[in-house]
Amino acid sequence: MTTIEDHATDVDDRDPLFARIPRRDFMKAGAAVGAVGSLAGCTGLLSDDGQVSAADADASVPPGEHDDYYAFLSGGHSGEIRVYGIPSMRQLIRIPVFGRESARGYGYDDRSSQMLEDAGGYSWGDAHHPRVSQTDNDYDGRWAFVNDKANGRMARIDLKYFETDAIVDVPNQQGTHGACCMLPDTKYVFGVGEFRVPMPNDGRDLDDPDSYTSTIAAIDPETMDVEWEVLVDGNMDNGDGGKEGRWFFATGYNSENGVTESEMSSSETDWVKAFDVPAIEEAVEAGEYEEVGGVPLVDGTRDSSLNGGDRPIVRYIDVAKSPHGVSVTPDGQYAIASGKLDPTCAVIDIEALAETDDPNEAIVGRPSLGMGPLHTAYDGRGHAYTTLFIDSQVVKWDIEAAVEAEAESEDPVVEKIDVHYNPGHLIAAESYTADPQGDWLVALNKLSKDRFLNVGPMKPENDQLIYIGDDDAGMELVKDTPAYAEPHDASIVSADKIQPADIYDPEDYDEEFVDHGDSDIVREDGRVHVKMYSQRNKFGFQDVTVQEGDEVTFTVTNIETTPDLLHSLAIPEHDVNIKLAPQETREVTFTADEPGVYWMYCAFFCSALHLEMRSRLLVEPAE
Amino acid sequence: MTTIEDHATDVDDRDPLFARIPRRDFMKAGAAVGAVGSLAGCTGLLSDDGQVSAADADASVPPGEHDDYYAFLSGGHSGEIRVYGIPSMRQLIRIPVFGRESARGYGYDDRSSQMLEDAGGYSWGDAHHPRVSQTDNDYDGRWAFVNDKANGRMARIDLKYFETDAIVDVPNQQGTHGACCMLPDTKYVFGVGEFRVPMPNDGRDLDDPDSYTSTIAAIDPETMDVEWEVLVDGNMDNGDGGKEGRWFFATGYNSENGVTESEMSSSETDWVKAFDVPAIEEAVEAGEYEEVGGVPLVDGTRDSSLNGGDRPIVRYIDVAKSPHGVSVTPDGQYAIASGKLDPTCAVIDIEALAETDDPNEAIVGRPSLGMGPLHTAYDGRGHAYTTLFIDSQVVKWDIEAAVEAEAESEDPVVEKIDVHYNPGHLIAAESYTADPQGDWLVALNKLSKDRFLNVGPMKPENDQLIYIGDDDAGMELVKDTPAYAEPHDASIVSADKIQPADIYDPEDYDEEFVDHGDSDIVREDGRVHVKMYSQRNKFGFQDVTVQEGDEVTFTVTNIETTPDLLHSLAIPEHDVNIKLAPQETREVTFTADEPGVYWMYCAFFCSALHLEMRSRLLVEPAE
């Protein structure tokens, strides 16, 4: 086991953080001191002078004060992303991703409608893993990415405007489960394919499971093009990137290539797959791929010649049956895969992986943690926090002790805390970076049972806030937060690392900005193009007259420059509502197929004369 | 002015509440004592012995404890209802109403899809006013209702299951703005029509605003049939029912019947309309109506003969320009309409209204409150709380003092508190009943500006929790709560008055319950009907094979009996996801138009073997 002195030195070297500003840093200081104290808790050697107790954890955010962190939570089959403030656990905003959302006009204006249409035209998706782009292993505030497990897609959210700006339909994947950045600089976003299906899935090989395949896809974060894919054996689910630009890890189940649960459960082991990305890139460069579905597909199955040489492109590491989560430690030393059906986690030494011929030798620890270990997060002080789905607990354990325990059978478990109930993912502040903050952890519990007022058979989930900044006092459950179905995973980012815009920059979109002087109505061959501004408390035209059957396009600009003064163009009985934030222009096209008077109005409460902000759409009968 | 002794006696008579249970009642006791104290604050005559200070207001709800109240907030143009817990301000659940929502499968299974289709087929609505059914002027826990301003509809939410179970497309209304129960026993739900349009709106009278009309609609809460409508002059917006089964009030603007803002603003006054419901029922009974759009339409315009006699069916009360909200005091004595563009509220004496020939004589108070008064709530201790949109404040005022002030010019204003920013509606606990709880008030502020971490140009609104239980210490701002666009109004109901079910009762729906022995696949003429159960962790069929082009119906039952164990049937690339709560059966029908293998799966994380809960849909090529 490493010595106490090693740890104490590590902490001090890692972050000289004992003289900073308000709440976050007060607590971070507490956390760092706590790190030393925790070892005291383990060993009894150190005094706990200077400890900040968990009872001091200030999770209150009084009216008018800001949170310390943004948390990006996936919305599961609601198809959206939700942004919480941490530690208040307040939901700051929703970001619709895979489905239309009317208050935001997402999927209503022509641009966002076309994006959803081009990405397959589905009305929903199953968003699991929101990951935020990094540069040099730290959040850079540019994008968040999230997968669609239901339709094999990956979406990008622009963090300047907190809106979805790209969705790619990933070829050759039916269920894109994991989503994860290639680190340190987000060279790729990886989509981890779960469902094995025939390739192409066009009716061939329907009942020939041996011919089914799944892939991982490397997506360029700038263009959202799929650069290449790698074919593998077995299903995959979660993934995480190493910190050093070489390895990407994915867990998987069903190494049996079965199709029934009993077939999928017959083997005693499954794999963690370690993708050697530079080796894959070399293979692509060398033309060692087949083009399938429009992308280079590299064969990374066990029998592939690309896995036969000195530097296999995919290393298959045997772990206990059906590992679920995998995450790389902040220092980049280990990939830790959770056992799910097995009470252990597998600690994979990443450096050893590169040096050994037998990848199984890279497993340097198998701590026994409890029932149903699913996912692991980090505090940057050498601890791992793993959800125990079946035990309904979070277990805190010492990573180095777990490595040592292989020989010494020492129990690396530091502490367990009950959560309510059945946690899936958990996330600690900046856990996916090289420098976790070590203060807050959120457990995403799938069931809430009786924790909240009864709201009928569809109960909320329960996102619980746990203070982990005081190793001496231990983990402290601070808040229960009901969550609409179905958050799967999250990323927590320090507030100062994201700098969203307050108003739109017209340079950032293609639509024509319509100022006061630009109002216009152009009619041509059954098409009407209306250009108008919106401003408290009117639209550029009081009346717009069209003919029954006309195809009508409205280009509307909100010419306000005051932040938070939104307008919309809502048209009754035409299913139209486009959102217009300050300086934003959107277009909407529809057919005016029913004669009559329709009061177009602004659906945002924009001024005292909000109700009066409306204009008439007059649709004249065709005859 | 009433005497101090009168008030003290009123409080004691109204509710002998000085020896009850935990938080709510502790605070209610404080509130009641505070009522006496408040007068002390006004007059200096009473001591403040026994006061519970606002600082004692316990808005924390520790992990595992329940809230005291359900709050039902509308979601504006998101088209949904949100349920908060009060005082935690946590969002407990969303209830999709006017648009599809995939996590809940709402608008995905055949039953809910058909309901949305029958109600016009729109993908969104503009939900403003959630009102909860009452019996004997108290919440009965049966239903909530909410309007759709965008498409002239009214929806009902079943509070056994917290789900939308009926939507009616209101004839002759383009924008149904107000929604409100006829009290004391919810005989009707009123839909208040805002937009004036030709009737019928089929292309006739396009640019003849004098012929435009709007109506209120009386909807039967059991059948959701529109029983009758009343034609009126001018636009209408908000409404509220008297407590006694006779009057219904609606505010309105545009008594000018104009179509531009300047036309709508030319008059100095507009109306509060008082509908004499039994008189209207008599007219309907007597056949004094025209049938339009399938419903009896009674003429309630000013020139109508039904308004010429001794008992006019609609009384037009002149108030300052563009009144906005109207609400009836808990004792049923007054209807208070807020001035919006005028700094006053109009206090209408309801008893006087019945006794006078000139309805304007029923106005017994016009307190000057501040800029932009919009809506008023009550604490049951004689105070009104009015939002001041332009001043960004809530003003607390004494109702009786305002009535007296007509003669004495005494200032009825007790206190103002800043809110952040620009409040629309506000709601106090059970304010719409005869017995408000007097502890919590929520101000629904339209702008949040810089109150939260920046999330881009579309900022959240801000629902602020204010403690009003201590008249002596004054109003206390307790919490800021970011809200996704765009809550308009709310109702707050004591937790014990709603008793939702934990699991479904199959007697409550028509679909066939599919138990273990009932699995079946029936094929006939290009139609395939699959009946299967779902249970941790499998579906009734491992494989389902159909032919390309088949119309496929799945009837699926979740046979679990354990609360909170939900399943779903998600079908990749088929845009299918139906939610199945315990004991719930749903059906979904789609065309299998693409050959291939599709992994149907459960999108709720239902067990440790959740990932393995999936079956194959095999679509064989047609040839």
Walk me through what this model shows.
Two copies of one chain form a homodimer. Chain A is mainly beta and 623 residues long. Chain A is built from seven helices and 40 strands. In chain A, the strands form ten sheets. Chain A has a six-stranded mixed sheet, covered by helices on one side. In chain A, strands 31, 32, 33, 35 and 38 form a five-stranded mixed sheet that branches. A four-stranded antiparallel sheet of chain A has the order 3-2-1-30, with no helix packed on it. In chain A, a hairpin with a 5-residue loop joins strand 1 and strand 2. In chain A, helix 1 packs antiparallel against helix 2. Chain A starts with a helix and ends with a strand. Chains A and B meet through strand 3, strand 29, strand 39 and strand 40 of A and strand 3, strand 29, strand 39 and strand 40 of B.
Entry summary:
Chain A is built from 7 helices and 40 strands.
Q: Could you give the order of strands across the largest sheet of chain A?
A: 8-9-10-11-16-15
CATH architecture of the domain at 506-620 in chain A: Sandwich
CATH C-level class of the domain at 506-620 in chain A: Mainly Beta
Largest interface: A-B, 141 and 141 residues
Task: List the quaternary state of the chains.
Answer: homodimer
**Outline of chain A:** globular
- Describe the largest sheet of chain A: 6 strands, mixed
Function (chains A, B): Nitrous-oxide reductase is part of a bacterial respiratory system which is activated under anaerobic conditions in the presence of nitrate or nitrous oxide.
Family (chains A, B): In the C-terminal section; belongs to the cytochrome c oxidase subunit 2 family.
Enzyme class (chains A, B): oxidoreductase
Subcellular location (chains A, B): Periplasm
